[in-house]
Amino acid sequence: MPFDSREEVLNWAQSTAKKCGFVVIILKSDAPIGMRARSSIGCERYCASAPKMSKAKNLKLDAEKLCKEKDKAEAEQKPKETASKKCGCLFKLNVKHALDDKWHVTVVCGVHNHKFSNNLIGHAYPERLTKPERVILEDLSKTSAKPKDILASIKDMNRENVTVIKTIYNERVRLRWIEAQGKTKM
């Protein structure tokens, strides 16, 4: 299926993925010298995170030394648990700008190895604010509206919006930071 622009391809892929219950991201995008532009689009859970040596394993090895040298309270400290949303999903689309000035999509792998979500709350990409939503946030912030009221008005404007209150707070901090540029702290 040919598209007129790269943005059109991305919008199509993201809207189709949203309907199905997953999120797609740009995995790779380049235009080598002398070649046509190309991109790879994949599931946000594409590939697995790099295997790391567990900090817990390292601490276990060092625990014996710590017990001898320091008190037991220090040796029993647990490392912070970390996780990744990557699960080795291989869903991937290749997008290439052809000689006919059209963008062509090729399915490399159309299979997911995870369940699709019923809602996209908690996914970074759908929680982002669009430009019109940022303008609304900026205007309402200047009128000293509460973040929950700002979120409510954004959600009234777009029923499919999955933005959370944390995004509103972060955006307000970003706006204050931009406003403070060039001003002294005193």
Structure description:
This protein has a 5-stranded antiparallel beta sheet with strand order 1-5-4-3-2, covered by helices on one side. The protein folds into 3 domains: 1-49 and 86-117, no CATH class; 50-83, no CATH class; 128-186. The protein is an alpha+beta fold and 186 residues long. It has helices at residues 6-20, 55-69, 72-75, 124-127, 131-142, 147-157, 165-180, and strands at residues 2-3, 24-30, 38-43, 92-97, 103-109. A hairpin with a 5-residue loop joins strand 4 and strand 5. Helix content is 41%, strand content 15%. The protein is built from 7 helices and 5 strands, in the order E-H-E-E-H-H-E-E-H-H-H-H. The model is unreliable at 55-61 (pLDDT under 50).
Number of strands: 5
Total helical elements? 7
Mean pLDDT: 76
What order do the helices and strands follow? Answer: EHEEHHEEHHHH
- Provide the spatial order of strands within the biggest beta sheet: 1-5-4-3-2
Structural class from helices and strands?
alpha+beta
What's the N-to-C terminus distance?
58 Å
Low-confidence stretches: 55-61
Strand content: 15-25%
Describe the largest sheet.
5 strands, antiparallel
Cα gyration radius (Å): 23 Å
Count of structural domains: 3
The helix fraction, in percent, is 40-55%
Q: Give the overall silhouette.
A: globular
Main location: nucleus
Family: Belongs to the FHY3/FAR1 family.
GO molecular function: zinc ion binding
Keywords: Metal-binding, Nucleus, Zinc, Zinc-finger
